């Protein structure tokens, strides 16, 4: 291995400290200057602002505290320096043992004044900078009267993600762009003894379920409690609108029919018909299906399933179209639970025809294909209704497949329904939605609970 040749710097003295050099030196013996960085003789000389060969005189190091291995703290303001024009910079006292005094404010220069082209304005001192006021919160409106609940004057809500930006009309945060939860993503309602909870679940981008819970009175003054649950058909157009329209129409129909003395089972039949008409009307609205933007794209009419329950005058009435279900879960879990509805689905048809047993049918990928629904393109509307007269108290579980997929059999449903469901229906509905979410939340989840209490006239069954 050959050695590198010694540099021929041709310098008599070190450019850094002016120490005399020998021709074979690679580094200055006094200050350690790297002589290999010096341009070769004959090269174009460098023209820096300050000549490289000018000796640099550093201030003496500050004294070291007795017993300390380091010198006293040196602050940048303690050292002299020059600006870009070669003028001395003033030293500034730097204090670390107390509050920093505010610098004196120099008099404002006259308009158009200046010296030698240098700017007179210095950068602001961060120690004396004044923080800008934060953006105002909701605009303050007139004071609300005593006892009234004041609403914010601004309709823009704070983002649930960053808690700083405002939510635009499109439902996204203007600051971080985060999509905000919609009102239907999670809904809870109580109406007397009836309660319902609906949740978007963990996989769907929106909640296409809807529900209605209400109470009313019969002509004799006895109470009636009702619940309607609808599940939008995802393959159809506007499934969320379909379920909402059906639930609202069925609820309104029942609240009108029951007080005037219509039999609860007949009232349920009429309510399902009214719900179907409400969903059908969505298909007749012009410009709502997007066909004008893509006339060649096939779109199904809005559609949904429906299931409802009425508890009135010692009767338990259910009605349904599709695969949303109702279960009877007695307070005494030693008594059998019962599924009160039969699905309008491919699997149910296979079982009814004797072609498959229930386990085989529901294991098939076609199991949840529905054969009945509310919508303008349904083959034929066939509302199913049934009336029961339990001889013991319990609760009716009215739900979409987002729940019963995780508790399909009656005994499975009874196992997950809390024991105090009749006394705490809202809490129990929350527990059931949580059970579905814990199971995976693959679909929208909606459940309503309607307690049934036996009266002395309720003996026997139908």
Overall residue-averaged pLDDT value: 77
Q: What is the structural class?
A: alpha+beta
Q: Biggest β-sheet: count, sense, barrel?
A: 6 strands, antiparallel
> What is the global morphology?
elongated
Q: Could you tell me the number of beta strands?
A: 14
Cα gyration radius (Å): 41 Å
Strands side by side in the biggest sheet: 3-4-14-13-9-10
Helix share, percent: 10-25%
- How many individual helices? 7
**End-to-end separation:** 108 Å
Q: Give the H and E element order.
A: EEEEEEHHEEEEHHEEEHHHE
Portion in strands = 15-25%
Low-confidence segments, given as residue ranges, are: 1-7, 41-59, 68-84, 91-103, 105-154, 289-298, 458-462
Folded structure, characterized:
The chain has helices at 239-257, 264-283, 346-352, 358-363, 401-404, 410-416, 425-438, and strands at residues 81-82, 88-89, 186-191, 194-199, 209-217, 223-232, 303-312, 315-321, 325-330, 338-339, 374-375, 384-388, 394-399, 445-452. It has 462 residues and is of the alpha+beta class. The strands form 3 sheets. Strands 3-4-14-13-9-10 form a 6-stranded antiparallel beta sheet. Strands 5, 6, 7, 8, 11 and 12 form a 6-stranded antiparallel beta sheet that branches. The protein has a two-stranded antiparallel sheet with strand order 1-2. A hairpin with a 5-residue loop joins β1 (81-82) and β2 (88-89). It is elongated. The longest helix is centred in the middle third of the chain and has 20 residues, at 264-283.
Would you summarize the structure shown here?
This protein is α+β, with helices and mostly antiparallel strands. It contains seven helices and 14 strands.
């Amino acid at each position: 291995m050959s050695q590198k040749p010694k540099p021929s710097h041709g310098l008599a003295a070190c450019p850094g400290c002016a120490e005399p050099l020998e021709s074979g030196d690679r580094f200055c013996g006094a200050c350690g200057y790297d002589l290999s960085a010096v341009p070769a003789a004959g090269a174009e000389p460098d023209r820096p602002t300050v000549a490289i060969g000018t000796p640099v005189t550093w201030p003496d190091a500050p004294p070291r505290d007795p017993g300390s291995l380091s010198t006293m703290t040196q602050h940048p303001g303690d050292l002299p320096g020059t600006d870009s024009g070669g003028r001395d910079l003033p030293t500034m006292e730097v204090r670390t043992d107390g509050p920093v005094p505010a610098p004196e404010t120099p008099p404002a220069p006259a308009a158009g004044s200046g010296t030698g082209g240098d700017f007179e304005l210095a950068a602001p001192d961060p120690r004396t900078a004044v923080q800008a006021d934060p953006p105002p919160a909701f605009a303050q409106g007139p004071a609300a009267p005593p006892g009234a609940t004041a609403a914010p004057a601004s309709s823009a809500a704070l983002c649930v993600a960053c808690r700083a930006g405002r939510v635009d009309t499109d439902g996204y945060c203007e600051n971080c762009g985060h999509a905000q939860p919609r009102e239907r993503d999670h809904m809870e309602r109580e109406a007397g003894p009836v309660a319902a909870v609906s949740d978007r679940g963990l996989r769907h981008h929106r909640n296409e379920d809807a529900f209605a819970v209400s109470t009313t009175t019969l002509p004799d003054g006895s109470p009636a409690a009702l619940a309607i649950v609808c599940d939008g058909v995802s393959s159809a157009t506007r499934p969320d609108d379909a379920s909402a329209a059906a639930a609202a129409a069925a609820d309104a129909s029942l609240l009108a029919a029951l007080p005037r003395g219509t039999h609860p089972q007949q009232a349920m039949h009429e309510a399902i018909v009214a719900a179907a008409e409400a969903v059908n009307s969505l298909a007749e609205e012009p410009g709502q299906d997007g066909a004008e933007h893509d006339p060649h794209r096939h779109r199904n009419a809005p559609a949904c399933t429906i299931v409802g329950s009425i508890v009135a005058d010692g009767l338990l009435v259910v009605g349904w179209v599709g695969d949303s279900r109702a279960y009877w879960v007695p307070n005494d879990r030693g008594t059998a639970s019962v599924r009160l509805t039969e699905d309008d689905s491919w699997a149910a048809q296979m079982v009814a025809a004797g072609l498959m047993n229930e386990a085989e049918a529901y294991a098939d990928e076609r199991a949840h294909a529905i054969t009945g629904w509310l919508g303008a393109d349904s083959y034929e509307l066939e509302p199913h209704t049934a009336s029961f007269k339990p001889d013991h108290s319990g609760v009716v579980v009215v739900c979409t497949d987002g729940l019963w997929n995780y508790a399909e059999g009656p005994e499975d449903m009874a196992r997950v329904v809390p024991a105090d469901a009749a006394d705490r229906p809202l809490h129990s509905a929350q527990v059931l939605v949580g059970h579905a979410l814990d199971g995976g939340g693959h679909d929208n989840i909606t459940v309503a609970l309607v307690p049934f209490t036996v009266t002395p006239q309720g003996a026997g069954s139908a």
